Amino acid sequence: MEISIDWASICIVGSRDLKQNIGTGYVFIKNNTIVTAKHVVVDDVNGDIRANLVAQFYGGVTLPLTLWATHRRNDIAILKTEGECPCTRPLMPSHESIVGVKGMFYAGYSPSKSADGIPTINISSIHNYNTHQVERADEKDEIILEFPANYIEPGFSGGPILAEGGSVVGIITQMFSENENPQVFGRATSIENLLAGLEFSINPEIFNFPV
Q: What is the mean pLDDT of residues 180-195?
């Protein structure tokens, strides 16, 4: 299994006010758009948007972030970068459903592997997984992916689940363990719930419309 991505397409999301890194984000479709988990940028306790959000990219570039939108029910947020993003190849959605994908990887910010003040992104393969569906009466059902994740850490929240080749099939939302089982698992929501909320637009400066 192989993936081919621009390393600047995955970033670390932090807050200058908290003086710490919180989670992971990734450049999605356009090079000024960042996707992450909602709890990375919105306080779980009081619902406030974290102040002075920034994205750190491969190569040392740091850009301010503005929260653009959050999903009403799922743990998904979309942000915009302020300034020129170093990513030249944003990640794209997979044409496959998260159900049935054979080879996948999970990626995220790894505090334990970061040294000398240099944050590190870690990518690991997913060897097996389970999925289940959460029914939504008024919108698209949510598909949840759960997988054994030996290298996952709290900083992985908001990171992408990548299919072979580097396309996105999911967003990491949680890490957990069951009872006294030492095995740690990752949980992700399908990219389909993000795509269902995006609108397709055409730039009139590039395309002509029939009269």
A: 87
